[in-house]
Specification:
Elements: E1 8-13, H1 22-31, E2 35-40, H2 50-57, H3 68-71, H4 75-82, E3 85-91, H5 93-101, H6 107-114, E4 119-123, H7 127-131, H8 133-144, E5 148-149, E6 153-156, E7 162-166, H9 170-180, E8 190-195, E9 200-203, E10 206-208, H10 215-226, E11 230-235, E12 246-250, H11 254-264, E13 270-273, E14 280-282, E15 305-307, H12 311-316, E16 323-330, H13 334-345, E17 349-354, E18 366-367, E19 369-373, E20 377-379, E21 383-384, H14 385-406
Parallel strand pairs: 1-2, 1-3, 3-4, 4-5, 8-11, 8-13, 11-12, 13-16, 16-17
Antiparallel strand pairs: 6-7, 9-10, 14-15, 17-19, 18-21, 19-20
Helix pairs in contact: 1-2, 1-9, 4-6, 5-8, 10-14
């Protein structure tokens, strides 16, 4: 089983003889399903070349903080947001000291400061350096701050001495990496997710729609699959690849989406309504293209609209509804409007998005949300929609588990 399927691992490599094991580590992480990108310190390049790491990972190796090609788009921030885990192996005594002090004097320490995902380190150094009081104090402080330690191991070292400080075996590093990620949170559950926009026809060539890209819904489908769920994705028109192991039903209009949802909802344990469904549609679409009249005066046109079916309210009204998660895309009064929607529609959770913020709007790869339940408000920091989705699935699973235990 690929426990790291679709995970993004940012591998940091620091200076030390154990740096050569980074090559094998890339391969073993990939074998477990991860996509790996590499950041090396300049000292690490003295032990293994960036070209080797690039050939194995399939991506250019990042070396310098002040790189004009990447910093024009804030490359270190993008790398930090891309990662589901920052794994530094080997982690030298110097790197651990810099991380403990919060220094950002190179690319690796800077992206660790910017990372919102977990950070894990696999120390490797001479046994005397590992046992030094300063190193131990640095490690104790890092552990208190949530940094995860893999090893070190004990045994014969490159310097000929025997003691603690060896890099943990690659197989064990991969095993510990797999253990970081929650798995099987939704095993045995069937999840239905709606995603993307709908298109409401005006005539055969024109329609009413919105700016939804479908990225958040597709990221949630991927996260739910990784949590062990069977996933049915009902998608409006988007330009996205369907995640592995996800069943998709493609629809166009709100009526199409409503029909697909209601036809399959009885099989589902969880419903997540992410789609930006059009609230209204034209009463009737013209059979032929509406032609422009070449009058001397500007022409006006009146469209009569009628309300579309409320999909999530219809699901909530079922005799035995599934666990219901809604989304609220607002431009003002975010928490107020989202809370009102939660109560009005009888939802278990609602995820509130401020789409007026250009950093996290409809077409962005990032999101910053607030998860609201009947008795709790959980803000999530701005991160990739992939990382946000993992956190949303975790909240859903925790609440489901609590309810099932209380029965």
């Amino acid at each position: 089983m690929k426990n790291l399927q679709n995970k993004h691992i940012l591998l940091g490599v620091t200076g030390g003889i154990a740096a050569y094991k980074g090559a094998e580590l890339i391969r073993r992480l990939q074998d477990s399903g991860a996509e790996v990108r590499v950041v090396m310190t300049r000292a690490a390049t003295e032990f293994i070349t960036p070209l080797t790491m690039q050939a194995l990972s399939g991506f250019p190796v990042s070396l310098d903080l002040l790189d004009t090609e990447t910093e024009s788009v804030m490359g270190h921030i993008e790398l930090a947001r891309w990662a589901d885990l920052v794994l530094v192996a080997p982690a030298s005594a110097n790197f651990l000291a810099g991380l403990r002090q919060g220094r950002g004097d190179d690319l690796l320490t800077t992206l660790c400061l910017a990372a919102t995902c977990p950070i894990a380190v696999a120390p490797a150094m001479n046994q005397a350096m590992w046992g030094n009081v300063a190193t131990q104090e640095n490690c104790a402080g890092l552990r208190r701050n949530g940094v995860i330690f893999f090893g070190p191991d004990e045994g014969l070292q490159a310097c000929g001495e025997i003691g603690q400080g060896r890099l943990l075996d690659v197989a064990h590093i991969v095993e510990h990496t797999c253990a970081i990620f929650p798995s099987n949170l939704l095993t045995g559950k069937t999840v239905m997710i709606t995603a993307g926009p709908t298109r409401e026809a005006i005539d055969p060539v024109r329609y009413i729609s919105n700016h939804s890209s479908g990225k958040q819904g597709y990221a949630l489908a991927e996260a739910a699959v990784e949590a062990g769920a069977k996933v049915l994705l009902i998608s409006g028109p988007v330009a996205l690849a369907v995640p592995d192991r996800v069943t998709v039903i493609n629809v166009v209009s709100a009526d199409d989406m409503y029909a697909a949802v209601m036809e399959n909802i009885t099989e589902c344990d969880i419903f997540i309504g992410v789609a930006a469904v059009a609230d209204f549609k034209p009463v009737a679409a013209a059979v032929q293209k509406i032609k422009k009249q070449h009058d001397t005066e500007p022409r006006t046109m009146t469209l009569t609209l009628v309300e579309n079916p409320d999909i999530i309210a219809s699901v909530a009204a079922l005799p035995t509804p599934p666990f219901l998660v809604g989304f609220a895309a607002e431009t003002e009064n975010l928490l107020t409007y989202a809370s009102e929607k939660l109560n009005r529609k009888g939802l278990d959770l609602i995820v509130a998005n401020d789409v007026a913020d250009s950093r996290i709007g409809f077409n962005s790869d990032n999101n910053g949300t607030t998860i609201i339940s009947k008795d709790k408000v959980t803000p999530l920091a701005v991160a990739s929609k992939r990382q946000v989705s993992v956190q949303i699935i975790q909240v859903i699973a925790d609440l489901l588990n609590t309810r099932e235990l209380s029965k």
